[in-house]
Every structure is written in structure tokens, then in C-alpha cells.
């Protein structure tokens, strides 16, 4: 797996997210209240809302457009909604963050 | 029912004191003899009749004063009662049959009822009259305590009885460091045995209230105001506030002065009559059969008897009965009744469960319960009380008696079955003396369906509320599936609490951050959800404007980045155009910005300003920078806050205009912009009733007239269409601003998050809002002042803050990865 450095843990506010522009589309990187890091495509399975702009709670994010709740752990829509987002491997070494784009399909490449 | 008309014919009834006892007496009287008397009340307290028992929840912040009023002003009007608020009667002239108040008002009576209650006992120690020394009897005392508590300083409560402990718990919830001093070795020794007193002390200490027993107060010391309490053993305890709750004395001096017979209280016979046939006495000031009372149940009994007397029934007589004691401190359950002293002729049954903090003791004499003390688990109180009252021989069930009703008979009963099994004359509500049969009867005959209905019709659970659970079970048992408890809607799945409770508890417990709220109010999730976090953030912003650090991670994206997100992830930008007025410079700037950033759509909004749509997030700060140079600030088109104030051209141009509607609109917008509100607030000012600014479908609207300004509110034209209601009429522009600001602040403080004004008003009542804003001058000014204070922190342009670099991270990707990197 190829890891690409994207920045520092503290670039992302707790219970917040930032996005990373990649050739394969935008990636949302989340930091939870207890400093867990997750990454996934910045594209809601409902109508493509930018998940990086949502409210982060527990290990989930609520989409800003129509309030679907997406699990950060597996990218699945929670509750009654159905759909999933591609999650992306992310790791934190010290305070440095890396993602791997190996699995990204690139079908939404912009 | 109406007091108008042939008043000449009616007998004159004067009541001295407007407390709980006479309030109840009048209810009975109007039921039995509605037209017999013309009633006049003098009350030393400047207010209507309220539920004094519930002062403790007001002190702790769990209730507002408005929620404990028993008879609002309307009730007195409906019954033609003249109520002199703030008039203390200083003289009764029995010869002339008149009374005179300290303000010089004199009235004559045919019948007089004295109901002056009690006065707190003030310890005769040096320093007892210093500033900072309070008693605990009426709303003024509570207000003074709440004010003192704001300093979060030290309080000493003298007296470890019911009142003292409720005061201590309330002050502690308000953030004070509280010590209780009690003369006796254990707390509430008159109602609890030492074991239960000890458990109670431990529970209070666990909450952080210090308790010192065997503490004899010697003096209150300080320079010009209370600073410490000195004890007989020589020690001192620092105190910025001292509350004396060392007992009460019947307030009987007035009757004494009038030469009526005195014991500890005003001596009356079993018909509540004093020795003067035209004077009755009821309530805590009265002494009947050698007893005086300090709990409402017997006082309500007196009220019933006195009402019967006044209605001409001389047969009904007062009967003494014991009243159970309960402590109204949330989280502490205790119950005691009757006699629990040791004695050779007595036996006791005790159950202790140390881990669960449960202690139960029954005192028997001749196989009959004569007293019981329950701590930690009090569900069986009503049952034990019933066995005691009916003097049931308990030898058959002695072995299992202490385990409670559920363990009697073959199979254990669940709580519902247990209430169902109570006999019809079992007392459910101690305060109001309501038995089971009366409640089930009323449910059947009146078709009652909810707790509120039952309260309204039977008074059960309408006073101290500690039997609420029992009453609900009873309704459920009676109605079966038809019972839908009027349960509160929780804020979200993270809590059981509704918005009102959350708002109340934030203030009461002084909670100042979201994690603190979640911890203290036992949130079920670690960091909430997208529903509760924005709500909590708003409540904290509103309640602690100067202290709270806004949590942007708990705001919806639009409020976080101060623009409106669009369906494609771009944003729209709507600058303020005060009152919808613009000029060439502003328009030129907008045109330049549109060109420079290649903005795809420019549109005039329904709110009299211009919307630029389709802006990339990264461009937002520089777009705002350019707009800011021309003086534009954010229009908050995204905010749960003040949106637009639409205006029409008014006297400036229009041939019908009556006032400067444009000027007023601009003034309001400039005064109120930047404030956060529970949901959006839209306003409009129209220059005449032709109403071109559509003011009558706004959250707040003004219609100008020749005579002044008609203020409207509670309209909407979105998901629901609703015309406004009239709040009231004012004459000057200044008054209009003052009233509107106060109204919005009241809404800010009471609204549920996302609840527009019209929905909030539906919940609290139009009249309530009108009363507080139009009629209550002091309230209005207080609301106004609190709004002005919060604006000091809210009124800064979020756009220019971000142009200067605030929240930079929001507007830029964290990293931009190039093609080769991703290979
Ligand atoms: C731009 C505008 C439409 C227009 O092109 O004219 C507009 C646009 C939106 N309205 Fe509106 N409303 C606009 C005037 C109105 C009006 C008319 C008015 O204010 O006189 C109403 C009816 C009056 C009322 O509110 O009672 C109106 C009732 C709503 C509602 C229903 C609110 C309700 O409580 O029933 C929503 C939905 C909501 O807020 O949850 C809404 C929500 C929205 C949102 C914010 C939808 C959203 O959440 O993204 C739209 C954002 C567009 C954007 O990005 O700018 N908009 N919206 C108007 C902006 C006014 C302004 O200058 O700020
Ligand atoms: C904090 C607190 C908690 C309580 N908790 C409980 C409880 O849990 N359960 C319970 O059963 N009871 C409780 N009580 C006691 C209960 O409130 C009283 O028993 C009851 O209010 C007494 O009613 P009353 O009508 O006799 O007098 P009050 O309600 O005291 O009314 C007397 C009124 O007369 C006015 N007055 C006095 N002198 C004059 C005068 N000369 N001229 C005109 N007006 C005059 C006073 O200003 C006062 O407003 C509590 C009391 C307090 C203070
Ligand atoms: S009416 Fe308002 S919310 Fe609906 S589409 Fe138009 S702008 Fe959007
Ligand atoms: S696009 Fe995310 S919920 Fe609709």
C-alpha cells in the first residue's frame, strides 16, 4: 500500500473534518472527539452532498444536505437509509496523517 | 360567577392574606355560593396566589414562577374580586367592622377571614438583621437568594428541617458552596428517625453540601454585612449569605391586637370561627383543637370547612389528621408519617439495604401501624399510610409487611396492579386529600384522559407533585390502553429530556459547555448528534453570552462558514441591505464582485436584498473582503438569527405613509443584527395598513398608523401560513423598538431550538406574551437589557472576521494531491 502524507492531525478540528483534493475526487478526512481519524470519499451516497461539511458526532457524520447519517467506520448509511460511501485507508504516525488512494476507483475523478 | 351587577345586595367578605389556604377556600365558596359575597382581598405580598410549596423548585431553577401561580390575574377579574396587592392590614376595628391597610385603604366587612400564614422564626442572636441574612418564606426571599447565588460564594443555612434542606439543595444547584447548620444531632429529627436522618445527611454530603449537626449559632458576624457565622463552640464558618430556616411561628399579631383569643395561633372552633361570630381564621395562623399546622393538607381541610361556614353550612367540622412529610429535593426520596418514637408498648420492623441506600421502618402498636419512615424507596408510603389511617390489624401479614404491598398475597404485584388493588378511600394525594375513588370516579364521569385533566378536576398531584407517579399509574390502570401519557418529546435520541428541561437545567446547574451539559444531564451518547449539538450550542450562547465560547463544530455548515450551502456544494452570499435600501455604490460593488469571481447567478430575494449564488467555498473569504470594502456585512441569510427587516417607502415618499417605516425598519435591523435566536426571525415594517411590506405574515411586524405603531407577531408564510396576532399598540418609535427587542429576547430565552415564534407562542400562550411584554414594565426592561448585553458579544460581522483569517481551515482543502502522487 502506498501512503501519501496529507498533513498534521491538528489541521483538523476535533469533531470536524477537512477535505483533500485528489485526482480521483475529493476525500473527506474526519477527526472524532476522541481523536480517531477516518477518511472517505467526500460524496454522500444520497445526492452527493459534501460529507466533509457535516456535523461529526461519535464515529458518524450527518450530511449537510438532507441529514443522512453515515458511519465513519464503514461508510454505510445508518438508520433507515441505505447506501454506502467508499472509505479510504488512513493512518496517523505521531501527528502526521497519511492516506492511501490505492483502492479508490476513480470513477468520480473530477 | 361574575361579580358585576347587583353588588349592593351582596354581603362583603374581606380576606386578610392571599396565601394557599384562602385561595382554596374561595374555590369551594364559589362552587357552593357563587353569588353570595362581594370579595375583597388584602395581601401584604404584592402578587397573586401561588403555590408556595413549589418555591423550592423555583429556587433550584427547575420551575419558573409563572408555572407555580395558582390564580392568575384573570381569575380575580372573572370572580369580581378586588385584590389589593402589597397592602398589609395593620388594624381590625371589630366595633366598626372595618380593616385598614398600611397604605391607608379602609374597607368594611360583613364577614372577615384572617389568613395571614406564618412568619419565619428569626434566631435572637447578634447580627441577625445584617444585610445578607435572609429567611425562606416567599418569592422575594427566593429572588434574593437567586441573586446572591450568582456570585457563587458561600452560603450557610441555619436549620436542617424541610425548609432548610430545600433551600440548601437549591442554593447548591445554583452554584453556591453550602453548609447546613443544625442544632440537633440528626437532620429533620421531627420527621425522621436517626437512621434515616443519617442516610439523608450522607446523600446531601455526596452532593457537596456540608452538614454540621449539634451546631448552635451564637452570632452572625461581619462588617456592615454578613461574613461569617459564629458557633457556640467558638468556631466560625464563612458565609456571604445566611438563610435562617429555623422554624415558623403563626402570624397572629393582627388578631391579637384586635383582642381575639390567642393560643400559639388564633384560636378557632371546629368550624374555623373565632370568638367573634363574624371573623374566621384559617391556614397556618389558626389554631384548632390545640394544633397549629405547617403543611397544606390540613390547611386545605380548613379551607373547605370555612367555605362551608360562609355558605351557611355550620355542620361541616374540621378533623385532625396526620400529614406525611416528603422532601422536595430531586433525587432524594423520603417519606414519613405519624409517631415513630420508641416505647415499651411499641414494636418495630426494620429493613435496610445498604448498597441500595434503602431504609424502612414501621412502628406498630397493638398490631397496628402508627408510624413509618421510608428512605430511598417510598413507593409503599401511600399503602402504609392507608393501613395506618384505617387502623388495619396487620398480624396476618407481619412477616412480609415491610417488603410492601407487592409482596402481600400469593404473587408479587407490579406497581400498576398495586395501585389497582388499593381501596377506594386510600389517600393518593396528601396535599389535597384526594383519595383513589375520587380520581377514578372523575376519570369515568368527566372523561379525563391525561394527568393535566386529572389535576384540573381533582387537584390530585397539583401541589407538591410528589404523588405524580402514583396518579399516572392510577390513570393508566383505569384507562388501560386508552391512556397516552402527555409525554415530553425528547430533544433527540441522545437524551430523555425535552427542550424545556434542558434549558432549565442549563441555567439551574450553571452548565457552561456542551460536554458539561452532556455529563450532568446524562446524555446517552458520547458527543451527541446533529440534532442536539446545535440546540445545546444555541442554548449556551443565549444563556451565557459573555462566557460561552461558541462551538463551531456544533453548528450546521451554513452557520459555520456564514454562507448557504447549495445542492452542488457551492455557496450563496447575501449581504445586508438595511431595510431593503441600497445605492449606486453598493450595486456597483456587487456587479464588480460578480464579474471578478465569475458568479453564475444574481437574484433579488424575497427579503429585499441581493443573493449571489454558486460561489466556490475557497472564494468566500475574498468575495467577502471585496464586499466589506463597500461596507457590506453578512446578511445572516443562513442563520437561526435575525434575517431581514423588510420595509416600505413610508412617509419618505408614499402619499399614504403615516410614519417613517423605512427608518424604523433600518433602526431595528441595525439594533438586532447578529443575534442568534432559536429559529430564524423575519420582520417587516409597513407605513400604513395597506401593508406593502407584508408585515402581517412575519415573526414580528409593525403596521404604522397616525396614532403610532401597531406591533404584530407570530406570523409565518413558509411551511405554514399564518397571519400575525396583535401584540399591542405603542405611540413612539422608541417604544416600538423597546417592545420588539423585549419580545425577541423573551423568545430567545424560552423558545425550543428550531421553533419559530408562532410555534413558541402557541406553546406559552398569546396572553402570557402580551402580559409580560405590554403590561409588565419591569419584565420588559429586563428582557431588553439582557438583549442589549448579549449583543455586545454577538454583533460583530462574521465575514470581516473571516477575511482577517478566522477559521481559515474551513475554506481551504487540507492538501491538494497531484496526479503523480496518486499513481
Ligand atoms: C433566497 C430566498 C429565496 C429567494 O430567492 O427569494 C430563500 C432561499 C432559501 N430559503 Fe427561504 N428564502 C427566501 C425567502 C423566504 C421567505 C420570504 C420572506 O422572508 O419574506 C419565506 C417565507 C416567509 C417565512 O419564513 O415565514 C421563506 C421560507 C423558507 C422556509 C420555511 C420556513 C418555515 O419556518 O416555514 C425555509 C425552510 C427552513 O428554514 O427550514 C426556507 C429555507 C431557505 C433556504 C435557506 C433553504 C436551505 O436551507 O438551503 C434557501 C437558501 C437559498 C440560498 O442559498 O440563498 N425558506 N423563505 C429568500 C431569501 C430572503 C433573504 O433575503 O434572506
Ligand atoms: C419553601 C417552602 C416549601 C414548602 N413545602 C411544603 C411542602 O412540601 N408540603 C406542604 O404541605 N407544605 C409546604 N410548605 C408550607 C406551605 O407552603 C404553607 O403551609 C402554606 O402556604 C400556608 O398557607 P397559608 O394560606 O396559611 O399562608 P401563606 O401561604 O403563608 O399566605 C399568607 C399570606 O398572607 C400575607 N399576609 C400576612 N400578614 C398580612 C397582613 N397583615 N395583611 C395582608 N396580608 C398579610 C402574607 O404576605 C402571605 O402572602 C412549604 C413552605 C415553604 C415556604
Ligand atoms: S422555495 Fe425556498 S427552499 Fe424551496 S426551492 Fe425555493 S428557495 Fe429553495
Ligand atoms: S446528499 Fe447527503 S443526505 Fe442528501
TrEMBL record, chain A:
Pfam families: Rieske_2 (PF13806). Residues 4-99 form the Rieske domain. It comes from Methyloligella halotolerans. This is Assimilatory nitrite reductase [NAD(P)H] small subunit. Keywords: 2Fe-2S, Iron, Iron-sulfur, Metal-binding, Nitrate assimilation, Oxidoreductase. One of its GO terms (biological process) is nitrate assimilation. InterPro entries: Rieske-like_NirD, Rieske_2Fe-2S, Rieske_2Fe-2S_sf. One of its GO terms (molecular function) is metal ion binding. It is an enzyme of class 1 (oxidoreductase). Gene3D superfamilies: Rieske [2Fe-2S] iron-sulphur domain. Coiled coil: none annotated. Its EC number is 1.7.1.4.
TrEMBL record, chain B:
InterPro entries: BFD-like_2Fe2S-bd_dom, BFD-like_2Fe2S-bd_dom_sf, FAD/NAD-bd_sf, FAD/NAD-binding_dom, FAD/NAD-linked_Rdtase_dimer_sf, NasD-like, NiRdtase/SiRdtase_haem-b_fer, Nit/Sulf_reduc_fer-like_dom_sf. It is an enzyme of class 1 (oxidoreductase). Binds 1 siroheme per subunit. Residues 325-387 form the NADH-rubredoxin oxidoreductase C-terminal domain. SUPFAM superfamilies: FAD/NAD(P)-binding domain, Nitrite and sulphite reductase 4Fe-4S domain-like, Nitrite/Sulfite reductase N-terminal domain-like. Residues 428-476, 491-540 form the BFD-like [2Fe-2S]-binding domain. GO terms for molecular function: 2 iron, 2 sulfur cluster binding; 4 iron, 4 sulfur cluster binding; flavin adenine dinucleotide binding; heme binding; metal ion binding; NADP binding; nitrite reductase [NAD(P)H] activity. One of its GO terms (biological process) is nitrate assimilation. Residues 12-306 form the FAD/NAD(P)-binding domain. This is Nitrite reductase [NAD(P)H].
Amino acid at each position: 500500500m502506498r501512503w501519501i502524507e496529507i498533513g498534521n492531525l491538528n489541521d483538523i478540528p476535533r469533531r470536524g473534518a477537512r477535505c483533500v483534493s485528489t485526482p480521483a475526487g475529493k476525500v473527506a478526512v474526519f477527526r472524532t472527539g476522541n481523536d480517531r481519524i477516518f477518511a472517505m470519499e467526500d460524496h454522500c451516497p444520497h445526492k452527493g452532498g459534501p460529507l466533509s461539511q457535516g456535523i461529526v458526532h461519535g464515529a458518524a457524520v450527518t450530511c449537510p444536505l438532507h441529514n443522512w447519517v453515515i458511519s465513519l467506520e464503514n461508510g454505510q448509511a445508518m438508520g433507515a437509509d441505505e447506501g454506502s460511501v467508499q472509505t479510504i485507508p488512513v493512518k496517523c504516525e505521531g501527528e502526521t496523517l497519511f492516506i492511501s488512494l490505492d483502492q479508490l476507483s476513480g470513477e468520480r475523478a473530477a | 360567577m361574575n361579580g358585576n351587577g347587583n353588588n349592593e345586595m351582596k354581603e362583603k367578605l374581606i380576606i386578610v392574606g392571599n396565601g394557599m389556604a384562602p385561595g382554596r377556600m374561595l374555590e369551594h365558596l364559589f362552587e357552593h355560593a357563587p353569588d353570595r359575597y362581594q370579595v375583597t382581598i388584602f395581601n401584604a405580598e404584592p402578587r397573586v396566589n401561588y403555590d408556595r410549596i413549589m418555591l423550592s423548585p423555583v429556587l433550584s431553577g427547575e420551575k419558573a414562577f409563572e408555572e407555580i401561580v395558582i390564580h392568575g390575574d384573570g381569575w380575580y377579574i372573572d370572580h369580581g374580586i378586588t385584590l389589593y396587592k402589597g397592602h398589609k392590614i395593620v388594624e381590625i376595628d371589630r366595633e366598626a367592622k372595618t380593616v385598614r391597610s398600611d397604605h391607608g385603604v379602609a374597607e368594611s366587612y360583613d364577614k372577615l377571614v384572617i389568613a395571614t400564614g406564618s412568619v419565619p422564626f428569626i434566631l435572637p442572636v447578634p447580627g441577625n438583621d445584617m444585610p445578607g441574612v435572609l429567611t425562606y418564606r416567599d418569592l422575594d426571599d427566593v429572588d434574593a437568594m437567586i441573586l446572591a447565588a450568582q456570585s457563587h460564594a458561600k452560603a450557610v443555612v441555619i436549620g436542617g428541617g424541610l425548609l432548610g434542606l430545600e433551600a440548601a439543595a437549591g442554593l447548591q444547584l445554583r452554584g453556591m458552596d453550602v453548609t447546613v447548620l443544625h442544632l440537633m444531632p440528626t437532620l429533620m429529627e421531627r420527621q425522621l428517625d436517626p437512621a434515616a436522618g443519617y442516610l439523608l445527611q450522607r446523600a446531601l454530603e455526596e452532593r457537596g453540601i456540608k452538614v454540621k449537626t449539634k451546631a448552635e449559632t451564637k452570632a452572625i458576624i461581619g462588617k456592615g454585612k454578613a461574613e461569617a457565622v459564629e458557633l457556640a463552640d467558638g468556631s466560625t464558618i464563612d458565609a456571604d449569605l445566611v438563610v435562617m430556616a429555623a422554624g415558623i411561628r403563626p402570624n397572629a399579631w393582627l388578631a391579637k391586637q384586635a383582642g381575639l383569643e390567642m393560643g400559639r395561633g388564633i384560636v378557632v372552633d371546629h368550624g374555623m370561627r373565632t370568638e367573634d361570630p363574624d371573623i374566621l381564621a384559617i391556614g397556618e395562623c389558626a389554631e384548632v383543637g390545640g394544633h397549629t399546622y405547617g403543611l397544606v393538607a390540613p390547611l386545605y381541610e380548613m379551607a373547605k370547612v370555612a367555605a362551608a361556614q360562609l355558605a351557611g353550612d355550620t355542620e361541616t367540622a374540621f378533623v385532625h389528621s396526620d400529614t406525611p412529610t416528603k422532601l422536595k429535593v430531586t433525587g432524594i426520596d423520603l417519606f414519613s408519617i405519624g409517631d415513630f418514637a420508641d416505647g415499651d408498648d411499641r414494636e418495630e420492623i426494620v429493613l435496610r439495604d445498604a448498597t441500595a441506600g434503602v431504609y424502612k421502618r414501621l412502628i406498630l402498636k397493638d398490631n397496628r401501624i402508627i408510624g413509618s419512615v421510608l428512605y430511598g424507596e417510598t413507593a409503599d408510603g401511600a399503602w402504609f399510610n392507608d393501613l395506618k389511617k384505617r387502623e388495619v390489624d396487620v398480624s396476618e401479614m407481619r412477616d412480609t409487611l415491610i417488603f410492601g404491598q407487592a409482596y402481600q398475597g400469593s404473587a408479587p404485584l407490579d406497581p400498576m396492579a398495586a395501585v389497582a388493588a388499593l381501596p377506594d378511600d386510600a389517600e393518593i394525594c396528601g396535599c389535597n386529600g384526594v383519595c383513589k375513588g375520587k380520581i377514578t370516579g372523575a376519570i369515568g364521569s368527566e372523561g379525563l384522559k391525561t394527568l393535566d385533566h386529572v389535576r384540573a378536576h381533582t387537584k390530585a398531584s397539583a401541589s407538591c407533585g410528589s404523588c405524580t407517579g402514583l396518579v399516572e399509574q392510577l390513570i393508566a390502570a383505569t384507562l388501560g390502553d386508552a391512556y397516552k401519557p402527555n409525554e415530553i418529546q425528547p430533544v433527540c435520541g441522545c437524551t430523555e429530556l425535552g427542550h424545556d428541561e434542558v434549558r432549565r437545567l442549563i441555567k439551574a446547574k450553571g452548565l457552561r459547555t456542551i460536554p458539561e451539559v452532556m455529563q450532568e444531564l446524562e446524555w446517552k451518547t458520547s458527543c451527541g448528534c446533529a440534532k442536539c449539538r446545535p440546540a445545546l450550542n444555541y442554548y449556551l450562547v443565549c444563556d451565557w453570552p459573555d462566557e460561552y465560547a461558541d462551538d463551531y463544530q456544533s453548528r450546521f455548515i451554513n452557520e459555520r462558514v456564514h454562507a448557504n450551502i447549495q445542492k452542488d456544494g457551492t455557496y450563496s452570499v447575501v449581504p445586508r441591505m438595511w431595510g431593503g435600501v441600497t445605492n449606486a455604490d453598493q450595486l456597483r460593488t456587487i456587479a464588480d464582485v460578480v464579474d471578478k469571481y465569475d458568479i453564475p447567478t444574481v437574484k433579488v430575494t424575497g427579503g429585499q436584498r441581493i443573493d449571489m449564488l454558486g460561489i466556490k467555498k475557497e472564494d468566500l473569504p475574498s468575495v467577502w473582503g471585496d464586499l466589506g470594502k463597500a461596507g457590506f456585512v453578512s446578511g445572516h441569510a443562513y442563520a437561526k438569527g435575525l434575517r431581514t427587516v423588510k420595509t416600505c417607502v413610508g412617509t419618505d415618499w408614499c402619499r399614504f405613509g403615516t410614519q417613517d417605516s423605512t427608518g424604523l425598519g433600518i433602526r431595528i435591523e441595525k439594533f438586532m443584527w447578529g443575534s442568534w435566536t432559536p429559529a430564524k426571525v423575519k420582520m417587516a415594517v409597513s407605513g400604513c395598513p395597506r401593508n406593502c411590506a407584508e408585515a402581517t405574515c412575519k415573526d414580528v411586524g409593525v403596521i404604522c398608523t397616525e396614532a403610532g405603531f401597531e406591533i404584530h407577531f407570530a406570523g409565518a408564510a413558509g411551511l405554514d401560513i399564518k397571519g400575525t396576532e396583535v401584540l399591542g399598540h405603542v405611540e413612539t418609535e422608541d417604544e416600538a423598538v423597546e417592545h420588539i427587542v423585549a419580545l425577541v429576547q423573551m423568545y430567545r430565552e424560552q423558545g425550543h431550538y428550531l421553533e419559530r415564534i408562532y410555534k413558541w407562542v402557541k406553546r406559552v400562550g398569546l396572553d402570557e406574551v402580551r402580559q409580560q411584554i405590554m403590561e409588565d414594565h419591569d419584565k420588559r426592561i429586563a428582557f431588553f437589557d439582557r438583549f442589549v448585553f448579549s449583543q455586545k458579544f454577538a454583533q460583530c460581522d462574521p465575514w470581516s472576521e473571516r477575511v482577517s483569517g478566522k477559521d481559515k481551515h474551513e475554506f481551504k482543502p487540507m492538501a491538494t494531491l497531484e496526479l503523480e502522487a496518486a499513481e
